[in-house]
Amino acid sequence: AQKITQTQPGMFVQEKEAVTLDCTYDTSDQSYGLFWYKQPSSGEMIFLIYQGSYDEQNATEGRYSLNFQKARKSANLVISASQLGDSAMYFCAIESGGGADGLTFGKGTHLIIQP
Amino acid sequence: DTAVSQTPKYLVTQMGNDKSIKCEQNLGHDTMYWYKQDSKKFLKIMFSYNNKELIINETVPNRFSPKSPDKAHLNLHINSLELGDSAVYFCASSLDTFSYEQYFGPGTRLTVT
Protein backbone atom coordinates (compact mmCIF):
# COMPACT_ATOMS: atom_id res chain seq x y z
CA ALA A 1 0.00 0.00 0.00
CA GLN A 2 1.16 3.52 -0.61
CA LYS A 3 0.38 6.72 1.20
CA ILE A 4 0.83 10.46 0.71
CA THR A 5 0.88 12.93 3.59
CA GLN A 6 0.40 16.65 3.09
CA THR A 7 0.64 18.35 6.46
CA GLN A 8 -0.37 21.87 5.43
CA PRO A 9 -4.15 22.12 5.01
CA GLY A 10 -3.88 25.80 4.12
CA MET A 11 -1.23 28.42 3.42
CA PHE A 12 -1.25 32.18 2.94
CA VAL A 13 1.67 33.66 0.99
CA GLN A 14 2.46 37.16 -0.24
CA GLU A 15 2.58 37.63 -3.98
CA LYS A 16 6.07 37.26 -5.52
CA GLU A 17 7.36 35.18 -2.60
CA ALA A 18 8.54 31.61 -3.09
CA VAL A 19 6.30 28.85 -1.73
CA THR A 20 7.15 25.35 -0.56
CA LEU A 21 4.35 22.82 -0.29
CA ASP A 22 5.24 19.76 1.75
CA CYS A 23 4.68 16.17 0.71
CA THR A 24 5.94 12.96 2.25
CA TYR A 25 5.22 9.54 0.89
CA ASP A 26 5.31 5.91 1.86
CA THR A 27 5.68 2.98 -0.51
CA SER A 28 7.37 -0.39 -0.46
CA ASP A 29 8.02 -0.28 -4.21
CA GLN A 30 11.43 0.58 -5.59
CA SER A 31 10.01 2.07 -8.78
CA TYR A 32 7.44 4.81 -8.41
CA GLY A 33 6.45 8.22 -9.68
CA LEU A 34 5.55 11.35 -7.76
CA PHE A 35 3.20 14.00 -9.10
CA TRP A 36 1.84 17.39 -8.24
CA TYR A 37 -1.51 18.56 -9.52
CA LYS A 38 -3.17 21.96 -9.20
CA GLN A 39 -6.92 22.32 -8.80
CA PRO A 40 -8.17 25.92 -9.14
CA SER A 41 -11.63 26.94 -8.00
CA SER A 42 -12.95 26.06 -11.47
CA GLY A 43 -12.37 22.41 -10.54
CA GLU A 44 -10.14 20.96 -13.24
CA MET A 45 -7.05 18.95 -12.36
CA ILE A 46 -3.93 20.45 -13.91
CA PHE A 47 -0.74 18.40 -14.06
CA LEU A 48 2.26 20.40 -12.83
CA ILE A 49 5.30 18.21 -12.46
CA TYR A 50 6.52 14.62 -12.28
CA GLN A 51 9.51 12.98 -10.57
CA GLY A 52 10.52 9.39 -11.14
CA SER A 53 12.08 7.46 -8.28
CA TYR A 54 15.21 6.78 -10.32
CA ASP A 55 15.62 10.34 -11.56
CA GLU A 56 18.80 11.76 -10.08
CA GLN A 57 18.00 15.36 -10.89
CA ASN A 58 15.12 17.26 -9.32
CA ALA A 59 12.33 17.89 -11.81
CA THR A 60 11.66 21.46 -12.94
CA GLU A 61 8.86 22.93 -15.07
CA GLY A 62 8.99 26.68 -15.43
CA ARG A 63 8.29 28.22 -12.01
CA TYR A 64 7.69 24.79 -10.48
CA SER A 65 10.40 22.55 -9.09
CA LEU A 66 10.20 19.38 -7.08
CA ASN A 67 12.59 19.02 -4.16
CA PHE A 68 13.02 15.25 -4.14
CA GLN A 69 14.75 13.75 -1.09
CA LYS A 70 14.51 10.02 -1.52
CA ALA A 71 16.05 8.99 1.80
CA ARG A 72 13.57 11.20 3.64
CA LYS A 73 10.71 10.14 1.35
CA SER A 74 9.78 13.70 0.65
CA ALA A 75 8.74 15.40 -2.59
CA ASN A 76 8.09 19.04 -1.84
CA LEU A 77 6.79 21.39 -4.52
CA VAL A 78 8.50 24.75 -4.80
CA ILE A 79 6.79 27.60 -6.64
CA SER A 80 9.08 30.51 -7.34
CA ALA A 81 7.81 34.09 -7.57
CA SER A 82 4.21 33.28 -6.69
CA GLN A 83 1.37 34.93 -8.60
CA LEU A 84 -2.26 35.58 -7.71
CA GLY A 85 -3.25 32.91 -10.22
CA ASP A 86 -1.38 30.32 -8.17
CA SER A 87 -4.18 30.38 -5.59
CA ALA A 88 -5.64 26.87 -5.71
CA MET A 89 -5.66 23.44 -4.10
CA TYR A 90 -2.44 21.50 -4.66
CA PHE A 91 -2.33 17.73 -4.53
CA CYS A 92 0.68 15.48 -4.23
CA ALA A 93 0.24 11.95 -5.60
CA ILE A 94 2.18 8.73 -6.03
CA GLU A 95 1.95 5.90 -8.51
CA SER A 96 3.92 2.69 -8.25
CA GLY A 97 3.82 -0.66 -9.93
CA GLY A 98 3.10 0.89 -13.28
CA GLY A 99 0.13 3.05 -14.20
CA ALA A 100 -2.44 0.33 -13.72
CA ASP A 101 -3.02 1.04 -10.04
CA GLY A 102 -3.93 4.66 -10.51
CA LEU A 103 -2.72 7.55 -8.42
CA THR A 104 -2.86 7.74 -4.62
CA PHE A 105 -3.45 11.34 -3.59
CA GLY A 106 -2.75 13.32 -0.44
CA LYS A 107 -5.45 15.46 1.15
CA GLY A 108 -4.19 18.60 -0.52
CA THR A 109 -2.99 22.05 0.48
CA HIS A 110 -5.15 25.10 -0.12
CA LEU A 111 -2.76 27.87 -1.19
CA ILE A 112 -3.91 31.47 -1.15
CA ILE A 113 -1.67 34.15 -2.66
CA GLN A 114 -2.24 37.60 -1.20
CA PRO A 115 -1.49 40.84 -3.07
CA ASP B 1 -9.27 19.62 -29.21
CA THR B 2 -10.17 18.51 -25.67
CA ALA B 3 -7.92 15.62 -24.67
CA VAL B 4 -10.22 14.02 -22.07
CA SER B 5 -13.87 15.03 -22.07
CA GLN B 6 -16.72 14.13 -19.76
CA THR B 7 -20.46 14.58 -20.06
CA PRO B 8 -22.41 15.90 -18.35
CA LYS B 9 -20.47 18.49 -16.39
CA TYR B 10 -23.25 18.75 -13.80
CA LEU B 11 -25.78 16.11 -12.84
CA VAL B 12 -28.55 16.60 -10.29
CA THR B 13 -30.79 13.65 -9.57
CA GLN B 14 -32.90 12.03 -6.88
CA MET B 15 -32.07 9.11 -4.65
CA GLY B 16 -32.83 5.76 -6.20
CA ASN B 17 -32.33 6.88 -9.79
CA ASP B 18 -29.86 5.34 -12.25
CA LYS B 19 -27.47 7.63 -14.10
CA SER B 20 -24.46 7.46 -16.40
CA ILE B 21 -21.41 9.64 -16.89
CA LYS B 22 -19.55 9.43 -20.18
CA CYS B 23 -15.81 9.85 -20.75
CA GLU B 24 -13.90 10.05 -24.01
CA GLN B 25 -10.22 10.60 -24.71
CA ASN B 26 -8.71 11.47 -28.08
CA LEU B 27 -5.10 10.91 -27.05
CA GLY B 28 -4.85 7.33 -28.29
CA HIS B 29 -4.22 6.14 -24.74
CA ASP B 30 -4.73 2.52 -23.69
CA THR B 31 -5.46 3.04 -19.99
CA MET B 32 -8.37 4.94 -18.47
CA TYR B 33 -9.46 5.61 -14.89
CA TRP B 34 -12.32 6.86 -12.76
CA TYR B 35 -11.64 8.86 -9.60
CA LYS B 36 -14.06 10.19 -6.99
CA GLN B 37 -13.47 13.50 -5.18
CA ASP B 38 -15.57 13.84 -2.04
CA SER B 39 -16.83 16.96 -0.31
CA LYS B 40 -13.53 17.28 1.57
CA LYS B 41 -11.66 17.33 -1.75
CA PHE B 42 -10.14 13.90 -1.18
CA LEU B 43 -9.46 12.08 -4.46
CA LYS B 44 -9.60 8.31 -4.62
CA ILE B 45 -9.16 5.85 -7.47
CA MET B 46 -12.29 3.84 -8.27
CA PHE B 47 -11.48 1.85 -11.41
CA SER B 48 -8.80 1.45 -13.99
CA TYR B 49 -9.17 -0.09 -17.44
CA ASN B 50 -6.51 -1.12 -19.91
CA ASN B 51 -7.51 -1.88 -23.47
CA LYS B 52 -11.14 -2.21 -22.44
CA GLU B 53 -10.29 -4.68 -19.68
CA LEU B 54 -10.88 -3.93 -15.99
CA ILE B 55 -7.62 -3.89 -14.03
CA ILE B 56 -8.57 -2.64 -10.59
CA ASN B 57 -11.76 -2.04 -8.68
CA GLU B 58 -10.98 -0.29 -5.44
CA THR B 59 -13.68 -1.45 -3.02
CA VAL B 60 -16.39 0.37 -4.90
CA PRO B 61 -20.00 -0.72 -4.33
CA ASN B 62 -21.30 -2.89 -7.14
CA ARG B 63 -23.94 -0.22 -7.84
CA PHE B 64 -21.09 1.38 -9.81
CA SER B 65 -20.41 -0.34 -13.10
CA PRO B 66 -17.83 0.95 -15.55
CA LYS B 67 -18.17 0.06 -19.20
CA SER B 68 -15.58 0.48 -21.90
CA PRO B 69 -17.04 0.03 -25.39
CA ASP B 70 -13.65 0.82 -26.94
CA LYS B 71 -10.24 2.13 -25.88
CA ALA B 72 -11.29 5.74 -26.23
CA HIS B 73 -14.35 5.54 -23.98
CA LEU B 74 -14.92 4.62 -20.36
CA ASN B 75 -18.42 5.26 -19.06
CA LEU B 76 -19.59 5.05 -15.46
CA HIS B 77 -23.07 3.81 -14.71
CA ILE B 78 -24.48 4.19 -11.22
CA ASN B 79 -27.58 2.31 -10.06
CA SER B 80 -29.85 3.20 -7.14
CA LEU B 81 -28.11 6.48 -6.37
CA GLU B 82 -27.57 7.35 -2.70
CA LEU B 83 -26.92 10.68 -0.99
CA GLY B 84 -23.32 9.60 -0.31
CA ASP B 85 -22.67 9.29 -4.03
CA SER B 86 -22.70 13.08 -4.29
CA ALA B 87 -19.17 14.00 -5.37
CA VAL B 88 -17.10 15.11 -8.32
CA TYR B 89 -16.15 12.24 -10.60
CA PHE B 90 -13.02 12.55 -12.72
CA CYS B 91 -12.06 10.47 -15.69
CA ALA B 92 -8.36 10.23 -16.58
CA SER B 93 -6.20 8.46 -19.12
CA SER B 94 -2.58 7.44 -19.54
CA LEU B 95 -0.63 6.10 -22.48
CA ASP B 96 -0.47 2.59 -21.04
CA THR B 97 -0.07 0.82 -17.72
CA PHE B 98 3.67 1.57 -17.75
CA SER B 99 3.21 5.28 -18.23
CA TYR B 100 2.77 7.25 -15.05
CA GLU B 101 1.46 10.54 -16.37
CA GLN B 102 -2.30 10.83 -16.31
CA TYR B 103 -4.46 13.40 -18.06
CA PHE B 104 -7.67 14.33 -16.28
CA GLY B 105 -11.04 15.27 -17.66
CA PRO B 106 -12.88 18.37 -16.38
CA GLY B 107 -14.92 16.41 -13.84
CA THR B 108 -18.65 15.74 -13.40
CA ARG B 109 -20.31 17.16 -10.32
CA LEU B 110 -23.01 14.72 -9.21
CA THR B 111 -25.57 15.90 -6.68
CA VAL B 112 -28.04 13.41 -5.27
CA THR B 113 -31.07 14.89 -3.50
Question: Explain this structure to me?
Answer:
The complex is a heterodimer of chains A (115) and B (113). Chain A is 0% helix and 52% strand. With 115 residues, chain A is mostly beta strands. In chain A, strand 8 (64-69) and strand 9 (74-79) form a beta hairpin. The N and C termini of chain A lie far apart (41 Å). The mean pLDDT of chain A is 94. Chain B has no helices and 11 strands. Chain B starts with a strand and ends with a strand. Chains A and B meet through strand 5, strand 6, strand 10 and strand 11 of A and strand 4, strand 5, strand 9 and strand 10 of B.
General form of chain A: globular
In DSSP terms, counting alpha (H) and pi (I) runs of 4 or more, how many helices of chain B?
A: 0
Strand content of chain B: over 45%
What does the main sheet of chain A amount to?
A: 6 strands, mixed
Instruction: State the shape of chain B.
Output: globular
- The percent of residues in helical segments of chain B reads under 10%
Strand content of chain A: over 45%
Instruction: Please report the distance between the alpha carbons of the first and last residues of chain A.
Output: 41 Å
The most extensive interface, with participating residues per chain, is: A-B, 24 and 31 residues
Distance from N terminus to C terminus of chain B (CA atoms, Å) equals 34 Å
Oligomer: heterodimer
Q: Please tally the β strands of chain B and state the result.
A: 11
Number of helices of chain A: 0
What is the string of SSEs of chain A from the N terminus onward? EEEEEEEEEEEE
What is the average per-residue confidence, as pLDDT of chain B, rounded to a whole number?
Answer: 91
**Secondary structure category of chain B:** mainly beta
**Biggest sheet descriptor of chain B:** 7 strands, mixed
The stretches of 5 or more residues of chain A where confidence is low (pLDDT under 50) are none
Secondary-structure element series of chain B: EEEEEEEEEEE
- Overall pLDDT level of chain A: 94
